[in-house]
């Protein structure tokens, strides 16, 4: 495996990238799309290790910094304005590895959502790996808090110790719970027309995409919990139903899969899914 440092032109602005290249590349290549204010390295070097693991398995993998992030020039932009950046990275991978037949986008958090938005409008993407996709809404966040956080807190010995010892402001906690419960109940999913909410827009994009997706979720993560709840109904549910979904849950994992065991689980799940869906 060889790592090559690249500069990718994106509308006249250079983006810094690293291509992990195996001696004999497979027919599928991966572009890692970062999430949040993140760089091509990833939290706890997650993207570096993933790219190397995939390349060791024969899959060329490109990771890059958006314009305005990390070592790339230009104006910083949010995940809904990075389609040109992703497109330039995909084009660069195809140019550098002309033998590949398929490109898969791999994204965590809002990188997963940005990948889906791009893939819905591009015929050049054959699959998505989406980890804990970002679909944040006020009501969705509240629902995740009510269903995931408060239940665990009420069952916690530490919660009752603080309550009985007077360390906790019970009235304030009750007000927070009631406010979140009301917000969660206010969630309104239309079955007739998609709203402008992030879950509905992601659902519409997935319906347009309609190709293989590996969905990896963490069991100890509010972002994953909010996504899974939103995916139970509405346009997000409909969009997922139009795709060929493979689900892989890592119940103990946190948002960024920060332990070596969780990272290895993600790497193995990704490699296995690529082999099953894009054999040479």
Automatic annotation (TrEMBL):
Organism: Niveibacterium microcysteis
Gene Ontology molecular function terms on file: hydrolase activity
Keywords, alphabetical: Hydrolase
Domain AB hydrolase-1: from-to ranges: 30-257
PANTHER family assigned: ESTERASE ESTD (PTHR43265)
The protein's name: Hydrolase 1, exosortase A system-associated
InterPro entries recorded: AB_hydrolase_1, AB_hydrolase_Est10, AB_hydrolase_fold, Hydrolase-1_PEP
């Amino acid at each position: 495996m060889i790592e090559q440092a690249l500069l990718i032109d994106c509308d006249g602005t250079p983006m810094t990238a690293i291509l992990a290249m195996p001696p004999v590349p497979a027919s599928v290549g991966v572009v890692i799309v970062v999430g949040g204010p993140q760089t091509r390295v990833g939290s706890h070097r997650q993207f570096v290790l993933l790219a190397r693991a995939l390349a060791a398995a024969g899959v060329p993998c490109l990771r890059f910094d958006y314009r305005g992030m990390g070592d790339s020039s230009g104006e910083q932009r949010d995940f809904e304005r990075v389609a040109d950046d992703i497109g330039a990275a995909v084009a660069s991978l195809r140019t550098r590895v002309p033998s590949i037949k398929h490109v898969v986008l791999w994204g965590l958090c809002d990188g997963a959502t940005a990948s889906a938005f791009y893939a819905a409008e591009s015929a050049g993407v054959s699959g998505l790996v989406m980890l804990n996709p970002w679909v944040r809404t006020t009501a969705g966040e509240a629902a995740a808090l009510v269903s995931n956080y408060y239940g665990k807190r009420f069952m916690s010995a530490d919660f009752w110790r603080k309550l009985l010892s007077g360390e906790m402001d019970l009235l304030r906690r009750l007000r927070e719970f009631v406010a979140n419960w009301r917000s969660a109940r206010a969630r309104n999913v239309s079955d007739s027309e998609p709203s402008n909410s992030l879950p509905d827009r992601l659902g519409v994009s997935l319906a347009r995409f309609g190709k293989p997706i590996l969905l990896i979720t963490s069991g100890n993560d509010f972002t994953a919990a909010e996504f899974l709840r939103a995916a139970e109904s509405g346009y997000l549910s409909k969009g997922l139903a139009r795709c060929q979904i493979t689900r892989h849950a890592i119940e103990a994992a946190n948002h960024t899969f920060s332990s070596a065991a969780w990272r290895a689980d993600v790497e193995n799940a990704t490699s296995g899914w690529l082999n099953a869906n894009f054999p040479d």
